[in-house]
């Protein structure tokens, strides 16, 4: 895909041209319809996805129900961060809330960059961590406004 | 050469699961730059929103993490860190480098502090270290996200067991199939097996493998309230047992004292308000009349007996507090099938009254309603004459705070009219004892005592007495209970 597409995303801001070129070579752009699942919770993840346009819902399966935990609408947001850490399994599912455009990058392309230049590993993993930390704050905000939890050990 | 201080710091760094897989040479360098810091109970380690300048590792003690929402309001505890080597303040390594929670020491606590600048210098000097560090940070932030989602599930589904099932599900790929954690959801389903659940959690937090320790810690954080409720319930069980199972040679007075002291310990751990101390008579020997509240189903003991906490509260926290002696309560005689009720009250030397459910046996001295009434007046009157306080709920039944009081029955008032010297009637209005005491504020308000003769010229005039109860005391109590409920609500 075009390197210029990556250059416009803040996630890739400040990366050297050669690194962007390698990532662009490995990346592909996808147009997905509303309702399409991008990631399945518990599945092994070896790709990361960056939102270009549209909106993504993050949800977790609880019994037969889906609990929505976040909605991503800002271009440049990353999903599939579990691909960077063991056990490399998605902690939530992701689906398109509306027709969406994504950049999909195999995590192997990142790992090759990190091997070549560990400084880039430090930088990129720091950005991934910041994205997850923001999602953590959103989840905490939801928790603060959610109804109270119920009892356990009901029976006498 | 390494100083003893560096050696200690290095030992902590090498033992930290967070730094597993790091090059020991990098850790030795970090040890040189790390500082051991101590905090006292309730001392803040850092505050949400402040610049994140240090990453900490727990050395000893415990640190509570709490977050406040953007819209203000009280902060919520999200995690209590008790594992040695666990990182605190990872925000120091993540843009925008502001702490995302408030950390407070719980008990005397020691931490190893590593400045952000030192970590960044080390990362610049050794890029491999920087990358490994960020991978570890990503791991810890991911774990926190997972833990928060688990709590969200617990709230959303009003069920912490669902959340724990989900957490175990998520941990499946890493958790041993033989782990006792898999038994947890089953133990959590029933109150009587809750202690087994906490036993598993406590054991695994100390001796489990790294995954078990982490998951057990998350579960324990989710179950803080359940543990508090269990402890409350176990106190109720212990109080019951201390009475029903008291040494056969122990007299009622001794059993009353022991149970009162235990009840005081129970109530001191609850949120409560007491007002009207100034209305308590100087000397004992009077009748405390109070509204009677129901019970929360969680307080039902395994033998179906319930300690009605409102009367115990007034006895232990008001009357005992003032006079140093547990009062005599007037309770209904147990039904033949109520073994738990009978085993408990038989040991306390209380005065029994007979409800319509109870048929007195031939051996009973109260074989007719009139004889029972006379027996009650004589026994209760003797206690008053001996200078003992009585606690009576004139309604003869319980109800909710919202519906309290029910119609007052005349027994307590007839007793007051019967005894010489005439005792005072000391009204006490109570609220919220029918709720869960671990999550509510209760209230008891003592009102100005009165003598029947202040209102009734002829104490033998039963019609006037009933009229006084129904048209004066009843409305007073309705108002007093509303006030007590407001006091409890205000205190909440």
Description:
The complex is a heterodimer of chains A (156) and B (492). Chain A has 156 residues and is α+β, with helices and mostly antiparallel strands. Chain A has helices at 3-7, 17-26, 107-116, 118-145, and strands at 28-32, 37-39, 47-53, 56-62, 65-72, 78-79, 93-96, 100-106. In chain A, helix 3 packs across helix 4 (118-145). Chain B is of the alpha/beta class. Helices cover 45% and strands 16% of the residues of chain B. In chain B, the strands form three sheets. Chain B has a seven-stranded mixed β-sheet, sandwiched between helices. The model of chain B has no long low-confidence stretch (mean pLDDT 89).
Helix tally of chain B?
15
Mean pLDDT of chain A: 88
What does the overall shape of chain A look like? globular
| Lateral strand order in the biggest sheet of chain A | 1-8-3-6
Uncertain stretches of chain A = 147-156
Hey, roughly how much beta strand do the residues of chain A contain? 25-35%
Q: Major sheet of chain B: order of its strands?
A: 9-15-14-10-13-11-12
Question: Could you give a short description of this structure?
Answer:
Chain A is of the alpha+beta class. Helices cover 34% and strands 28% of the residues of chain A.
Can you tag this structure with a few keywords?
heterodimer; A: 156 residues; alpha+beta; four-stranded antiparallel β-sheet; 34% helix; 28% strand; disordered C terminus; B: 492 residues; alpha/beta; seven-stranded mixed β-sheet; 15 helices; 45% helix; 16% strand
Q: How is the secondary structure organized here?
A:
The complex is a heterodimer of chains A (156) and B (492).
Chain A lengths: L2 H5 L9 H10 L1 E5 L4 E3 L7 E7 L2 E7 L2 E8 L5 E2 L13 E4 L3 E7 H10 L1 H28 L11
Antiparallel strand pairs in A: 1-8, 2-7, 3-6, 3-8, 4-5, 4-7
Chain B lengths: L3 H12 L8 H10 L1 E5 L4 E3 L7 E7 L2 E7 L2 E10 L5 E2 L13 E4 L3 E7 H10 L1 H30 L3 H12 L12 H5 L5 H14 L2 H13 L1 H21 L7 H17 L2 E5 L11 E4 L18 H15 L4 E5 L6 H7 L5 E3 L15 H17 L4 E3 L18 H8 L6 E7 L9 E6 L15 H30 L1
Parallel strand pairs in B: 9-15, 10-13, 10-14, 11-12, 11-13
Antiparallel strand pairs in B: 1-8, 2-7, 3-6, 3-8, 4-5, 4-7, 14-15
């Amino acid at each position: 895909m075009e390197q210029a597409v990556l250059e416009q995303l803040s996630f890739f801001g400040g990366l050297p041209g050669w690194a962007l070129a390698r990532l662009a070579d490995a990346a592909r752009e996808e147009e997905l319809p509303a309702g399409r699942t991008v990631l399945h919770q518990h599945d092994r993840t070896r790709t990361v996805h960056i939102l270009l346009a549209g909106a993504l819902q993050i949800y977790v399966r609880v019994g037969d129900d889906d609990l929505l935990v976040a909605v991503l609408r800002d271009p440049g947001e990353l999903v599939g961060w579990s691909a960077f850490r063991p056990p490399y399994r998605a902690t939530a599912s992701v689906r398109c809330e509306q027709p969406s455009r994504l950049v999909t990058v195999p995590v192997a392309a990142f790992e090759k960059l990190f091997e070549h230049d560990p400084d880039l590993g430090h930088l990129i993993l720091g950005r991934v961590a910041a994205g997850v930390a923001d999602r953590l704050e959103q989840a905490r905000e939801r928790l603060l406004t959610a109804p109270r939890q119920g009892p356990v050990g009901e029976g006498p | 050469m390494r100083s003893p201080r560096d050696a200690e710091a290095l030992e902590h760094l090498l033992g930290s699961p967070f730094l597993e897989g790091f090059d020991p040479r990098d850790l030795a360098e970090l040890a040189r730059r790390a500082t051991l810091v101590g905090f006292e109970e309730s001392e803040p380690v850092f505050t949400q929103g402040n610049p994140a300048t240090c990453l900490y590792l727990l050395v000893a003690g415990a640190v509570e993490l709490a977050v406040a929402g953007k819209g203000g309001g009280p902060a919520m505890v999200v995690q209590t860190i008790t594992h040695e080597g666990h990182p605190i303040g990872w925000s120091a390594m993540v843009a925008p480098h502001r702490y995302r929670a408030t950390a407070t020491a719980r008990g005397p606590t020691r931490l190893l502090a590593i400045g952000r600048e030192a970590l960044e210098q080390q990362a610049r000097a050794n890029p491999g270290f920087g990358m490994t560090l960020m991978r570890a940070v990503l791991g810890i932030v991911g774990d926190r996200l997972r833990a928060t989602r688990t709590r969200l599930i617990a709230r959303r589904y009003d069920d912490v067991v669902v959340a724990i099932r989900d957490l175990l599900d998520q941990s499946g790929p890493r958790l041993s199939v033989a782990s006792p954690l898999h038994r947890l959801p089953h133990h959590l389903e029933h109150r009587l097996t809750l202690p087994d659940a906490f036993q598993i959690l406590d054991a695994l937090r100390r001796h489990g493998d790294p995954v078990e320790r982490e998951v057990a810690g998350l579960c324990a954080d989710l179950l803080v309230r359940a543990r508090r409720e269990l402890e409350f319930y176990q106190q109720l069980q212990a109080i019951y047992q201390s009475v029903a199972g008291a040494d056969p040679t122990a007299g009622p007075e001794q059993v009353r004292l022991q149970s009162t002291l235990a009840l005081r310990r129970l109530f001191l751990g609850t949120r409560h308000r007491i007002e009207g101390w100034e209305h308590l008579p100087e000397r004992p020997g009077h009748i405390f009349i109070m509204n009677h509240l129901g019970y929360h189903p969680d307080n039902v003991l395994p033998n179906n007996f319930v300690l009605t906490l409102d009367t115990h509260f007034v006895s232990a926290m008001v009357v005992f507090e003032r006079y140093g002696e547990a009062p005599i309560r007037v309770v209904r005689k147990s039904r033949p099938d109520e073994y738990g009720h009978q085993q408990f009250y038989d040991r306390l030397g209380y005065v029994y009254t007979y409800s319509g459910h109870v048929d007195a046996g031939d051996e009973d001295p109260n074989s007719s309603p009139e004889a029972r009434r006379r027996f009650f007046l004589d026994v209760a009157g003797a206690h008053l004459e001996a200078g003992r306080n009585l606690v009576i709920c004139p309604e003869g039944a319980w109800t909710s705070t919202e519906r309290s009081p029910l119609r007052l029955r005349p027994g307590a008032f007839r007793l007051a009219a019967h005894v010489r010297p005439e005792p005072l009637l000391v009204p006490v209005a109570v609220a919220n004892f029918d709720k869960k005491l671990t999550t509510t504020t209760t209230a008891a308000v003592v009102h100005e005592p009165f003598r029947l003769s202040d209102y009734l010229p002829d104490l033998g005039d039963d019609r006037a007495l009933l009229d006084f109860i129904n048209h004066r005391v009843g409305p007073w109590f309705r108002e007093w209970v509303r006030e007590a409920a407001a006091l409890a609500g205000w205190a909440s």
